[in-house]
Write a structure and sequence with these properties.
Elements: H1 2-21, E1 34-36, E2 42-44, E3 49-55, E4 68-71, E5 77-81, E6 86-90, E7 96-100, E8 108-113, E9 119-123, E10 128-132, E11 138-142, E12 158-163, E13 168-173, E14 180-184, E15 190-195, H2 204-212, H3 215-220, E16 231-234, E17 240-243, E18 252-255, E19 272-277, E20 283-287, E21 291-295, E22 301-306, E23 321-326, E24 332-336, E25 341-347, H4 349-362, H5 366-379, H6 384-396, H7 400-409, H8 413-456, H9 460-470, H10 473-486, H11 488-498, H12 503-523, H13 538-562, H14 569-579, H15 581-593, H16 602-628, H17 632-681
Antiparallel strand pairs: 1-2, 3-25, 4-5, 5-6, 6-7, 8-9, 9-10, 10-11, 12-13, 13-14, 14-15, 16-17, 17-18, 19-20, 20-21, 21-22, 23-24, 24-25
Length: about 675
């Protein structure tokens, strides 16, 4: 028995060591680390940062409602101790160096330290930006700019501050939606203008007011103003990073000197607290709800970790994150305003490996980056960003097929397209002569067969059999689509008056249409596929397609009947199906082309789909006019009423579904309770 226990213990220890060696979530980590895959979905990954300790006291000083944290290159830590109206300066171990601003500051909420050791403090209560020397003496202060372009009603309540190498001061003022205030240090705080203003929010109600309301009515309403930026930082290149709560895809911005966002929009947390830039250009954004996000310099998510502290006081979780900073070893220091502590995080082996690969690639050392990317993938095969990095390295090596595979696994469409472009060029150069000869041979063979048929009638037996097949009533009805395409008005007349089609032939075409829809959905090229690779939901696709078709058919027929339309239900059924014939004819071609085109040639597919749906729209208009004998105005009215009725029907179905679900859950709960009581009392 003892031998078994000892053996199990050894196995357990070895397993734990191996597990931790790979950087997987350690037992002392109270959170899970995530990244995103190529579909933008969060997936679990190895732990990137480990909580190692927390700082609650600087010597014997505690801090209250601290708002900001800065660590300089020499590992000196500055804390904006807002509640105590001071700045605390210490080393990374929490040993006090000095305090600054006591008796001067009213509410220090933002701090910045320049290369020459000057400390800039944004004070919201005093409406000042104070500048202190390295030893803590007040050097100067900046108040509300006395400049006509600043605006009389514009507020100056500094919350955050940053200074670039040219001496320009950037200030975020509470309630000032004009943008970031820019002052000149060299010219005694001269107002230079506003920088990086956010776009004004536009909603449907605002658009409606602009269209309907008079100028007097608009003047009485509250104007739509841009949202005020919440925080900012500056990197070594002078680029300014801002975060704004509630901006969705534009929460994080990377602004050049012209104020243009260089990230282009990506999904970020709606409640950011602070932003910093690491030495390799990686961007860290904290969320006030406790999460920490790490992005590449291009805004691609690497890791997200942390979480909300539910009261257990566990290291690594937070109440309200207000600031983040980084020391020279790339350890993270995260300030919790509510818990009044600083938590310290150490990057793991896995994070360091990712950073190393990223640095090598961004510096142009593609061959050197290949090995660490492969190691990252070996440790975590679901880390799509590493696959993209590997694909980029392979592409630079001109290993295009391998690069294409890596890009496909990483779901990088642009990289896949570029690789395929190169592969296709090589294939065309190699096989161009063969393609020409095959085409020429096919043309000559066709001409020879045509000539022999004219002289010897060698195809006569085949033609007779084909004519027999064509004369079958069902085949005639299906072949009617070719006449219908050429003469749609006469085609609808044939459907309504001459019985050119039947319910059976229409249903066969509908089934073929569904097959084309599924073919397009699942057989489109990787670059243009609308479903996840390897995912098949054919049953639900068919169900939803038929449900939508039946709903549209029913609503249109009912609306047309109420408005004295002459078309019978079977005519309407056939008319709608035959109106979608362009989809049946063109989409298969587009689907095949999607497998040989690149993103640069996507306009071909866009044109084909536009042509298809435009053609269908024209046929539907003609169908409504001819089958129901409507005027053009009646056709337009019928279309809008049908669409409105369809939306109402969808809403009604949704309400019924929700009610049914609630009733089902209620009944299930009652039955479960009854069963439980019976089992316990019997």
């Amino acid at each position: 028995m003892k031998v078994k226990l000892i053996s199990l213990f050894i196995v357990f220890c070895v397993s734990v060591i191996s597990y931790n060696r790979l950087g997987v979530v350690e037992a002392n980590t109270p959170y899970t680390t995530y990244t995103v895959d190529g579909y933008g979905e969060y997936i679990e990954t190895q732990t990137a940062y480990l909580p190692v300790r927390s700082i609650r006291l600087i010597d014997d000083l505690s801090f209250s409602s601290a708002s900001d944290l800065i660590i300089t290159e020499d590992n000196t830590m500055f804390i904006a101790d807002t509640g105590n109206k001071r700045i605390i300066v210490s080393d990374l171990e929490g040993n006090l160096i000095r305090t600054i601003g006591e008796g001067i500051l009213g509410s220090p909420t933002g701090i910045f330290v320049t290369e020459d050791k000057k400390l800039y403090v944004a004070d919201e209560v005093n409406e000042r930006v104070y500048v202190f020397s390295e030893t803590g003496e007040l050097v100067t202060e900046y108040g509300k700019p006395d400049h006509p372009l600043f605006g009389e009603k514009a507020t100056f309540k500094p919350q955050k501050v940053a200074v670039d190498k040219r001496g320009s001061i950037y200030i975020i003022s509470k309630g000032n939606s004009n943008g970031i205030i820019q002052l000149s240090q060299a010219n005694n705080g001269e107002f230079l203008g506003y920088f990086g203003v956010n776009d004004a929010r536009i909603d449907l109600m605002g658009i409606f007011r602009d269209l309907v309301f008079t100028d007097e009515q608009k003047a009485q309403l509250k104007s739509t103003e841009p949202v005020t930026t919440n925080n900012l930082t500056i990197d070594s290149k002078g680029l300014i990073y801002t975060i704004t709560q509630g901006e969705g895809a534009r929460t994080l911005k990377k602004l050049n000197m012209a104020g243009t966002d260089m990230l282009g929009g990506a999904p970020y947390d709606d409640y950011p607290g602070d932003v910093i830039v690491g030495p390799i250009g990686n961007i860290f954004v904290t969320s006030t709800n406790g999460y920490i996000y790490e992005y590449t310099s291009e805004g691609e998510l690497l890791f997200v970790f942390g979480g909300r502290d539910n009261g257990d006081q566990r290291v690594g979780l937070f109440k309200t994150v207000s600031s983040i900073s980084m020391d020279s070893n790339q350890w993270l220091y995260v300030l919790d305003q509510e818990k009044n502590e600083i938590q310290v995080f150490e990057p793991t082996e896995f994070a360091n490996l990712v950073h190393n690969a990223l640095v090598l690639y961004e510096e142009g050392h593609y061959l050197e980056s290949k090995a660490p990317w492969l190691e990252v993938i070996e440790m975590n095969s679901l880390f799509d960003f590493a696959k993209v990095g590997l694909g980029e390295a392979l592409f630079k090596e001109e290993a295009y097929e391998e690069a294409q595979t890596a890009f496909k696994q990483g779901l990088d469409l642009t990289g896949y397209s570029d690789s395929y472009w190169e592969i296709r060029n090589v294939w065309l150069k190699t096989n161009l002569v063969s393609i020409f000869l095959i085409a020429l041979g096919s043309y000559i063979l066709f001409k020879v067969i045509h000539l022999l048929d004219r002289k010897k009638n060698i195809l006569s037996p085949i033609k007779k059999q084909l004519n027999k097949i064509k004369n079958i009533k069902l085949i005639k009805e299906i072949n009617f689509i070719w006449y219908f395409i050429k003469n749609p008005s006469d085609g609808f007349y044939g459907i309504k008056r001459e019985g050119k089609v039947s319910i059976l032939s229409t249903t066969i075409i509908l089934v073929l249409f569904i097959c084309v829809y599924l073919f397009n959905r699942y057989c489109s090229g990787f670059l243009f596929k609308t479903v996840k690779e390897g995912e098949f939901t054919i049953g639900s696709d068919i169900t939803l397609f038929l449900a939508g078709f039946i709903l549209l058919l029913t609503c249109h027929y009912l609306v047309a009947t109420i408005t004295d339309g002459e078309g019978k239900f079977k005519h309407v059924y056939s008319g709608i199906v035959y109106s979608f014939v362009p989809y049946f004819l063109l989409v298969p071609i587009a689907t095949i082309l999607s497998n040989v085109l690149t993103l640069n040639e996507s306009f071909i597919l866009s044109f084909m789909y536009t042509l298809t749906y435009g053609w269908i729209g024209v046929l539907l208009v003609i169908m409504i006019k001819e089958l129901h004998n409507f005027t053009l105005s009646e056709v337009v009215k019928n279309i809008f009423v049908t669409l409105f009725t369809t939306l109402i029907a969808i809403l009604a179905i949704f309400v019924v579904y929700v009610l049914f679900t609630q009733v089902y859950d209620f009944v299930s709960a009652i039955i479960g309770e009854v069963v439980y009581r019976l089992e316990n009392f019997m």
